[in-house]
Structure formats: structure tokens, C-alpha cells
Amino acid sequence: MNAQPQLGWIGLGNMGNPMSGRLLEAGYPVVVYNRSKDKEEALRAAGATTADSPAAVVQQADVVFLMVSDDQAVRDLFAGPDGLLQAQASGKLLINMSTVSPGISEEMANLSQQKGHTYLDAPVSGSVKQAETGQLVIMVGGDEQAFQQAQPLFEHLGKLALHLGPTGSGNRAKLAINTLLGFYTQGLAETFLFAQQHGLKLEDMQTIIANGAMGNVFSKIKGEAIMAENYQAAFALKHLAKDLRLAKAEGLNTPLGEVVHDTFQQAEPALGEEDVIAIMKHLQG
Known about the structure:
Elements: E1 7-10, H1 16-25, E2 30-33, H2 41-45, E3 49-50, H3 54-60, E4 63-66, H4 71-79, E5 93-96, H5 102-114, E6 118-121, E7 124-125, H6 128-133, E8 136-142, H7 144-157, E9 158-165, H8 169-197, H9 202-210, H10 217-228, H11 237-249, H12 255-271, H13 279-284
Parallel strand pairs: 1-2, 1-4, 2-3, 4-5, 5-6, 8-9
Antiparallel strand pairs: 6-8, 7-8
Helix pairs in contact: 8-10, 8-11, 8-12, 9-10, 11-12
């Protein structure tokens, strides 16, 4: 990798926008692509250039990051008519930071290799605030030498980047940590619901949690959201429901795993666009 590689970023959602912005702030030239072109404007104003297609991004960039919603979006961006792998280019590093299945990473890694590219799966743990401040945890699967090449870039995006093994390892780690997120979310909601049903003040319950061994940043933020009845999505419930489906497809069948999977699938039709802690509303009935 050159000292100052040209970077590409595809997918400018709630997470992709601040993450690509951090790379711009670090002085890297960045070319961006998003299907909704209005989302490119803030980055263009910050100094990014724009491309008309994923193929155009990979022609211009040495390293291309992707952060999109699901397996189908990944497949379209790689193998679609104007996809990354349609460009007359080789030798690029393609880093997929989306939360998707290990299978799609293995498939795209094989296709990328056939075109002379290297693929890393590198999903993240953290939400918008951590993306804005570079405090994400990055879980990486794929070639270790490619990981070492990408490490200086990861340092601008997260507080920790770990190489976990071959392709798909990052995806599996992300599904594991988001299963724990499901446990935490439903557990916190059930704790508040139980307290409420027995006449306890939610403010007192929040104080007890915050000052005990179970207190953490998540319980603080989501406890405050429950008390304020603020369910605006920082991490939409539909995304966690999707992640739990992926985990189940990978073999999640433990007692708690089954329960939290089913609860979020049931809640998704009505509450999918709200924050994960809106599971409280589902449990209240």
C-alpha cells in the first residue's frame, strides 16, 4: 500500500457517512458512491470526489470500503452490471464492513481473487457516536498480510482492530457480539418492565444498575431512552432482527438465543424502524 493511498467508500448510511468523513479528515483522498446521491453532498463539501458507479470507484481507488445493509446489496455492488468486479482493474483491496453472512463474504472473496483483488470482511461493533469519534471495534477476517496493510486505515476508524482468522471470521464475530447485544437489549427492557410492574420508579432502577456491576454505557444510554420514551433509531430494531436471523442460520440454537431471536422477529413488523430498545414497547404489549 502506498503511503497515501486513494480510498473509495461505498454506502453512506448512518455509519458510512461519519466513517468515510474520518478518513477525509485524516488527509486521505476519498471517492464516494451511494445510490441516493443526496447523501454524497456533505462529503463532497468536505472534499471527497464522487463516482457514478462501484466500477468507477474501484478504477480510481487503491482501497475500497463498503458498508451496506445486507447480503443482496453486497452481491449487487460486487457482481452487478456496474459492480466492483466489472471494472478493468486488479490488485485492489476490498474491505466489506457490512454486517452480513459469512457465506456472502466467502463468495465475494473468491470472486475478488479471480479478478486479482484481495477481500477482507471487517464489520464493526459500535453505533453512530463511536463512528463519529473513531471508537469502533473492528473484527476482521481474511488474509493477514492484507489486514496489516489496512491497519493504518483502521486506526482512524476504531480503537481496536483484530484479525480473527480466514474469510468470514469477522462476520461470525459480529453475529456473536450482536447476539449478546440482543440479550442485553431484551434483558434491560425486561428488568425495567418488571420493576415498573411492581411500582418501582424507573429512575431508581437506572441508579441501581448504574452503580452496580451490571452498569455500562449501553445500559445508561438505553435506560435513559426508556425513561424518556425516546425510541428514535440509533441502531434500528430491524437491523438487529436481521442479524439474529443470520446468527440462527449459522447455528444459533441456545435457549436464550432462540428466545431473543423469536422476540425480535415478532417485534420487527411494528417496530423495525425504531431503536432496538423499542423492544420494551413490544414486551409491554
